[in-house]
Each structure stands twice: as C-alpha cells, then as structure tokens.
Sequence to fold (377 residues):
Amino acid sequence: MGEPMRIRAQMAGDKVEVRVLMSHEMETGQRKDGGGNIVPAWFIQNIAVMHGGQTVLSAQWGPAVAKNPFMHFRFAGGRVGEKVSVTWTDNRGDKRTDEVAITAG
Amino acid sequence: MTRPHKPVVAALLFAAGLLFGTGAHSQDSTAKALQEYRDALQDGNPAELWEIKGEDMWQQPRGPNKVSMEKCDLGLGPGVVKGAYARLPKYFKDTDRVDDLESRLVHCMVSLQGYTRAEATRRVFGGPGAAADMEALVAYVSSQSKGVKMNVALAHPREREAYQMGQKLFYYRGGPHDFACATCHGEDNKRIRLQDLPNLTSKKDAQRAYTTWPAYRVSQGELRSFQWRLYDCFRQQRFPELLFGSDASVALTMFLARNANGAAFAAPAIKR
Fold:
C-alpha cells in the first residue's frame, strides 16, 4: 500500500476544484542504478475519482508522468461536506485510496 | 528520474540561445522562461508529502525506547514545534553546544528514543527509491514556522562564537579550485549555468535564500534540508565532505540564519 495522498477539494463558484498530490516513485523503466542495471518501470496506471457513487474522473497514466504527481481538475455537481475519493493503481497492482470532504470556497 | 534529462535541457536552451541571438537578450528571455516554470510549480508542492510523513513520525513511538519525539525540546520547551525553526540554531544548555534543527533532532533521537548516534544519522539524505526519515522530520518541523519572522539570537557567547566561525568559513578560500562560499555568493548577478545565485552578503538575497530552505527539489524528486544544501555546496566547491551536524555545518547555518533575521520564514519551498 502506498503512502497517503494530499487531497484538497474546495468549492469554486458552482464547481468543485480538486487538487491531488500523490506520493509515488514513477520509475520510467529507462533509468539505470549505480550498478548499471535497469530500474524496472513502476508507475501509476489508473486513477479514479469518485463522488456520490459516480466516477467524476478516470485517467490512464504512463511512465512519462513525473515523480510525486500533482493533479488538478474541476467537476460539477458537488456540495460542501460531500466526500470525494481518489484511488490510484500502479503497474505492480499496488493501490491507494484517500478521501476528503468538500470545503467551502 | 529527471536528473539524466537536465544536461539535455541545458543543451537545448543553450542551442536556443545561439539560434535566437546572443548576449543579454537571450539571457533575459531564458531567465523569464525559468521564472514561468518556477511559478507553474508553486501550486501543489510535494514537500507536503514529506510534511505529512514527518508529522506522523514525530507522533509515533519509535526507537528502542518506543517513545515519540513529542518531548523533544527544540528550544521553545519540550514538544513545542510551532515557530521553533525560525529561532534555530541556538545554544542548548543540556548539550552545551549550539545546535541547528538537524543536530538537535539527532540529539532527541538518541536521548529520548534510544537510537545510537550511528543509527540516527545512518540515512540523513534521501536518494532514488529511498526517502530519508530525517528529511521528513525536517519538513514537518520547518513547516510549523511558516510565516514566522526569523529571530536567531546571538545572546550566548557560544552563539556569537558559532556566528563568527560561520562567517570565517563563508569567506574561507580553499580546495583544488581555491573557492570560498563568497566566490559564488558574494556578488550580485552570478550564475552557475542557468541558475541565478543569491548574493548572501546582501540582506535581501540572504533573507530570501535562507527562508526558502528546506525545499522540494524537482530535479531530484526529494525534499532537501539545509544541512543538505550546505553539504552539496561543499561538494561543488570540492571541499572535504561536510559532516552532518558537525560544528562547522552548524556554524555556517548560524551565520546564514542570523543574517536572515526579520524576514518571514517561507519554507518548505519548491525549487527547480
């Protein structure tokens, strides 16, 4: 299980503005270690953001995304106090889910 | 991960300089592009991930004694973290020495948690795939001084001694390049490659530089403490290795921290 994410979900007008900071190595599979051996690719593959039982964002990522990725987006239909949950799954099958309540803008 | 790309980017920017003219104009536009890049990074600083981890580590019972760091005295009393970083380094009676945050954390890990000094300093700087506990603790403690005005005292004779020693070190020329810190940081508008260097002998630059460390270094994907900053400066100068938490490192920190007095602390920051 990965390390905790930092999620902020805040009302911005009638939309919810979500900022997610994920803790992940995001190895490209191109890098070599001190011994000259290739460091195997290890990166977040799927992201799913849920709100009220519905998927509000889903994304497929590859190894080109930076280490400790930051994701920022807005969605419509959320209200203060409702929960937003973010789940990532990496190419090793490791998973992490974190949840926050929407705050007032 | 991004480290191997750096020379490529530098080479491309250099090539762009050749293509689109030389001299001040291309330098200005490069500096502008770098500034835009830095601004784009400000939202979503991964240093927060280290802060969360460090806060957890601060509260968890750890080490052979299974106690937390919550009784650790960083200068404002046991367990007081808020504003502590803005007053460090300072003289501590119990250790009878001037400590910066990192050397003080080592002291607490040894005296409270029961680690040996070697265990507490085994991994003080993170590398690919292995973050350092020390840098997480530093991130958490320093984040609790955000917005607090730097207020480093020179009240005790040992504090004045450390300051003077740090000043001497700052101007001390040596090593195969006959370099001093002041060689790069003693004049305005100096650069290493594309990196603008602060003139640490001017109040404004000294304040801005000190109050934006520790920082998340994007090119390394790590949070870096002030001890790391000095360690790496020494390495770049081809000086002998600066030992972690050594008197020399604390003295230099004292000199630089004191010179930043009056400025609001603004770290952990994010840097290229």
User: Anything to note?
Assistant: Chain A has a mean pLDDT of 93.
